[in-house]
């Protein structure tokens, strides 16, 4: 017997529904889970939460489940589900929540152990992918315990995702399923699943129930995301025919944001009641998370039909003062109306679009939507799909906003009747007539049930929705623009059915075997007029596209094959719901899948602009000096290679990232030539590091770094030459951002040896361990941003000890000034609140940064100018309280910056969240970034 299974992997809850293959009603699976220490019970909702208890917090056996499996995230002791939620509400800093929101956050490495965000060092951490996998693995274990002869991995599984998830987030969701032992799943968009549930429940009378409907809006507002979809309803042979015609862009906006807004209000009230300055007594990130959970429970009580006038919110103290230091205040119904209803669901009579801000709220590390008003995002969504909506409704193009005549509300937020009614009232006012509401009997379980109904529909046993690709996908054409528009060619039009292979007509590419290849893609959720056809040239507004991670590969071929292979691109919306792109040899003999780059970086840059015509001549110069067939060249010519390249290509400060990477590729292909002489090695190291800086930010930089890193253990050929040694360490400092954590730790070993080894140890130095001056080592060591924060704390303490040894009495001589400059630059880089190269969780802990600032404040910043520069970076405001220093220390730093006459940018970066200007950024990095390359920091 085979079961049809639907899984809603939600931000707040995970739900599993199932049906017997081809027959029987859709049922909910009761998930066995811990509800109290040592107590197991079944429930249809598994809270999507993990709790990592302290060493002696729970007795042995209190986490025992009816099965014995190892946690897929690798944590020895962990509670999932209802017990995790209860323990997390009582103890701050140990709860993993909202992992799903992190899956769509490209600003961090989503496969790195970063959750719980802001937790202390003794708390085990897991990645967003592993956390998501652990909820699915729990379902699998519970199912297999109950149905041992029908294991979950052998059933037909549909896993739901937000319609707005991009290709990266979808691929990571599939990776989580794979880690959970569920390698064969199909993805379905959550709004569609919710509508499938409604269709299945009304299948007997569907013609009557949808008789007057022309256009259905599915508004799905869950714990972490807001998702909109439009479904057109036609009549065919007397039966309704449904077609999904539009989806919205991704919004990290939902119930979590509402709870957080209430927590900020309660935090301020608690501080005022205690007679404290609210800005100076902010809760820690872990305590704020605890308060947010309390506010969620209070919000649900105040939104209930029989809601009280107020609910008391209590925040327990910490440690031995658990009770005595507790605080409490009231949340009132008018607070809910003002903050939740008017703040998140304003009536928006003017039909205003969502307001754009430079940056949204950053809390718990997540970049929430900058405009919290769901109804403004809805107005923008309807405008984006106005042409298709008017066609579905039969309305003329008179410039007014086309409003759907029918709405289905889904997601936990709409359990609150007041919230559901407010959205209906808004649509009714916009439309000028009542909007019909399709009754959703239980928003918590509708998506999982609908995922099963979807599979039944595929078998012809339930009503279906025609969908296909939710977006149109385009290939950006390098070097081609049309005014301020992006010149693109259509790869896959919106609405293309799944499993239909679409070839890009009229475009072929000559790809070199064994060399990297990458393409830039963008997507749009709406098209002006009819969707384009594959191969059509289309000019797109940059503000209306979503840039996807680059797709890339390195082509491999059999020995003896041609070095260049003509290929064409073939695109498919896969059966599991993801975008597949292949390079297919024109002779049909081979095909290579292009993989999305998902790890660590947000690859959102523009495509390569036109490269200079002199590039070939520049590569010829590199070939002459380093090539295998090079003639004997004089040392003077080698020394003048950089000047010769600048003569051809212009000043190197203006070399763009695409040009720099082409030059690096040329140098890499001729790397063996660097060993010919001292001059060759100096020139190669200098140019290679400059052309690959900062080691990331351009497609296939990860591959380039792998090739470069393979040279590290070999060291340099001319190790007795001081300039070769300096160029070696300059190279690794410039590209440090592209090194993995393991590689950075390896560089750290050499850093420590060169700075701390005694004479006897230096005598045993291996020849491949390149010596380095103190200045070179400080610059390299401070650039290793991915090393664990404990190492950063150790480096910072050593730097401060060196600073303490500098004589500070009287006027500073040049030597003392230079030492201050070196050590303080390195300290500012090591202690910076905003990482340039790595995930935000890898910065030095705020309490360590505060202790360093206390010592810096003892210096005279007028006399020691680098002290203010270092302090500004260590105190920089990020908006994320797990990284930010406390407000008292911030105020001290601001006063000192003002009194020392520091540049306005230094003060601004401490006072508020700002982007750095180029001068400050260049000083901190040690190099200007290539033109057109912008770091997230």
- Relative helix content: 25-40%
Average of the residue pLDDT scores: 86
Q: Which residues form runs of ≥5 with pLDDT under 50?
A: 319-324, 358-362, 598-608, 932-937
Which structural class best describes the helix and strand composition?
A: alpha+beta
Number of strands: 33
Largest sheet: 7 strands, antiparallel
| Terminus-to-terminus distance | 54 Å
Strand content: 15-25%
Radius of gyration, Cα only, in angstroms?
A: 30 Å
Described by the principal axes of the CA atoms, the overall outline is globular
DSSP helical segment count? 30
Structure description:
It is built from 30 helices and 33 strands. 37% of the residues lie in helices and 18% in strands. The protein starts with a strand and ends in a 12-residue tail after the last helix. Residues 319-324, 358-362, 598-608 and 932-937 have low confidence and may be disordered.
Ordered list of secondary-structure elements with their pairings:
Layout: E1 3-9, E2 13-20, E3 23-28, E4 31-36, E5 39-43, E6 46-47, E7 50-51, E8 79-80, H1 82-90, E9 95-96, H2 99-103, H3 128-146, E10 156-161, H4 167-179, E11 185-189, H5 190-201, H6 206-209, E12 215-221, E13 226-236, E14 239-247, H7 255-273, H8 285-302, E15 310-315, E16 327-332, H9 333-344, E17 362-363, E18 366-367, H10 374-384, H11 386-393, E19 406-410, H12 417-431, E20 436-438, H13 446-458, E21 465-466, E22 472-482, E23 485-492, E24 502-503, E25 509-512, E26 516-519, E27 521-524, E28 537-540, E29 546-547, E30 551-554, E31 564-573, E32 579-585, E33 591-596, H14 615-626, H15 635-639, H16 641-649, H17 657-669, H18 678-692, H19 701-709, H20 722-734, H21 741-756, H22 759-763, H23 774-782, H24 789-804, H25 814-830, H26 846-856, H27 865-874, H28 887-899, H29 904-911, H30 918-925
Parallel strand pairs: 1-10, 10-11, 12-19, 14-21, 19-20
Antiparallel strand pairs: 1-2, 2-3, 2-6, 4-5, 7-8, 7-9, 12-13, 13-14, 15-16, 17-18, 22-23, 22-27, 23-28, 24-31, 25-31, 26-30, 27-29, 30-33, 31-32, 32-33
Helix pairs in contact: 3-4, 5-13, 7-8, 14-16, 14-17, 17-18, 18-20, 20-23, 21-23, 23-25, 24-25, 25-27, 26-27, 27-29, 28-29
């Amino acid at each position: 017997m085979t079961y049809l299974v639907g899984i809603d992997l939600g931000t707040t809850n995970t739900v599993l529904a199932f049906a017997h293959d081809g027959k029987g009603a859709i049922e909910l699976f009761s998930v066995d889970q811990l509800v109290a220490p040592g107590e197991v019970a079944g429930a249809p909702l598994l809270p999507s939460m993990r709790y990592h208890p302290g060493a002696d917090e729970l007795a042995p056996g209190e986490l025992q489940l009816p099965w014995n499996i190892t946690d897929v995230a690798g944590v020895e002791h962990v509670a999932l589900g209802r017990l995790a939620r209860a323990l997390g509400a009582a103890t701050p800093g140990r709860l993993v929540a909202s992992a799903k929101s992190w899956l769509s956050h490209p600003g961090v490495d989503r496969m790195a152990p970063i959750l719980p965000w802001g937790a202390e060092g003794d708390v085990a951490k897991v990645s967003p992918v592993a956390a998501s996998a652990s909820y699915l693995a729990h379902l699998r274990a519970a199912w297999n315990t109950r149905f041992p002869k029908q294991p979950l991995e052998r059933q037909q599984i549909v896993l739901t995702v937000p319609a707005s998830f991009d290709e990266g987030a979808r691929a990571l969701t599939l990776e989580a399923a794979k880690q959970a032992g569920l390698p064969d799943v199909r993805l379905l968009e959550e709004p569609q699943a919710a509508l499938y549930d409604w269709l299945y429940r009304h299948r007997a009378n569907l013609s009557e129930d949808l008789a007057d409907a022309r256009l259905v809006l599915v508004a799905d507002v869950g714990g972490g995301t807001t998702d909109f979809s439009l479904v057109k309803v036609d009549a065919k042979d007397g039966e309704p025919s449904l077609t999904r015609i539009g989806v919205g862009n991704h919004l990290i906006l939902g119930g979590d944001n509402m709870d957080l807004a209430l927590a900020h209000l309660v935090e301020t009230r608690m501080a005022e009641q205690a007679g404290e300055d609210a800005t100076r007594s902010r809760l820690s990130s872990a305590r704020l998370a605890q308060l947010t959970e309390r506010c969620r429970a209070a919000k649900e009580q105040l939104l209930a039909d029989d809601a009280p006038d107020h609910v008391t919110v209590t925040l327990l103290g910490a440690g031995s003062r658990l009770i005595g230091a507790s605080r409490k205040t009231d949340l009132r119904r008018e607070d809910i109306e003002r903050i939740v209803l008017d703040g998140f669901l304003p009536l928006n009579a003017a039909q205003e679009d969502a307001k754009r801000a430079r940056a949204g709220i950053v809390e718990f590390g997540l970049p929430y939507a900058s405009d919290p008003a769901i109804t403004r995002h809805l107005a923008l969504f309807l405008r984006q799909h106005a042409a298709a909506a008017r066609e579905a409704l039969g309305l003329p193009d008179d410039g007014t906003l086309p409003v759907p005549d029918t709405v289905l509300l889904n997601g936990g937020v709409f359990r609150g009747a007041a919230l559901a009614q407010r959205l209906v009232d808004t649509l009714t006012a916009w439309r000028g007539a009542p909007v019909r509401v399709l009754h959703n009997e239980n928003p918590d379980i509708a998506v999982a049930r609908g995922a099963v109904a979807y599979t039944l529909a595929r078998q012809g046993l339930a009503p279906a929705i025609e969908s296909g690709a939710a977006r149109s996908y385009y290939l950006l054409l390098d070097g081609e623009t049309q005014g301020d528009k992006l010149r693109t060619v259509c790869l896959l039009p919106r609405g293309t059915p799944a499993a239909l292979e679409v070839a890009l007509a009229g475009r072929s590419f000559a790809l070199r075997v064994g060399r990297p290849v990458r393409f830039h893609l963008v997507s749009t959720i709406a098209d002006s007029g009819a969707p384009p056809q594959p191969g059509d040239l289309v000019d797109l507004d940059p503000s209306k596209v979503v840039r996807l991670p680059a797709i890339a590969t390195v082509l491999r071929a059999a020995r003896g094959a041609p070095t260049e292979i003509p290929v064409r691109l073939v695109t498919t919306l896969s059966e599991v719901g993801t975008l597949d792109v292949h390079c297919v040899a024109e002779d049909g003999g081979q095909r290579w899948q292009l993989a999305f780059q998902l790890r660590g970086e947000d690859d959102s840059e523009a495509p390569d602009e036109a490269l200079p015509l002199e590039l070939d001549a520049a590569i010829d110069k590199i070939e002459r000096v380093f090539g295998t067939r090079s003639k004997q060249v004089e040392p003077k010519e080698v020394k003048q290679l950089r000047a010769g390249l600048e003569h051809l290509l212009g000043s190197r400060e203006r070399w763009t990232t695409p040009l720099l990477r082409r030059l690096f590729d040329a140098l890499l292909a001729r790397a063996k030539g660097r060993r010919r002489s001292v001059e060759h090695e100096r020139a190669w190291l200098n140019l290679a590091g400059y052309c690959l800086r900062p080691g990331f930010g351009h497609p296939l930089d990860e591959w380039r770094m792998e090739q470069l890193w393979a040279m590290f253990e070999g060291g340099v050929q001319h190790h007795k030459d001081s300039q070769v040694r300096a160029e070696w360490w300059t190279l690794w400092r410039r590209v440090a951002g592209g090194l993995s954590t393991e590689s950075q730790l390896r560089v750290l070993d050499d850093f420590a040896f060169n700075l701390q080894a005694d004479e006897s140890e230096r005598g045993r130095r291996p020849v491949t361990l390149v010596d380095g001056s103190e200045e070179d080592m400080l610059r390299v060591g401070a650039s290793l941003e991915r090393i664990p924060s404990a190492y950063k704390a150790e480096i910072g303490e050593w730097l401060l000890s060196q600073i303490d040894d500098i004589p500070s009495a009287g006027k500073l001589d040049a030597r003392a000034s230079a030492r201050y400059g070196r050590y303080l630059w390195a300290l500012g880089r090591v202690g910076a609140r905003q990482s340039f190269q790595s995930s935000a969780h890898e910065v030095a802990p705020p309490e360590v940064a505060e202790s360093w600032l206390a010592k810096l404040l003892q210096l005279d910043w007028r006399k020691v100018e680098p002290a203010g520069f270092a302090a500004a970076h260590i105190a920089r405001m990020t908006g994320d309280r797990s990284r930010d220093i406390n407000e008292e220390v911030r105020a001290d730093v601001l006063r000192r910056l003002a009194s020392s006459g520091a540049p306005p940018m230094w003060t601004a970066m401490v006072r508020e969240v700002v982007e750095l200007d180029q001068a400050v950024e260049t000083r901190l990095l040690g190099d200007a970034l290539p033109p057109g390359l912008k770091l997230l920091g």
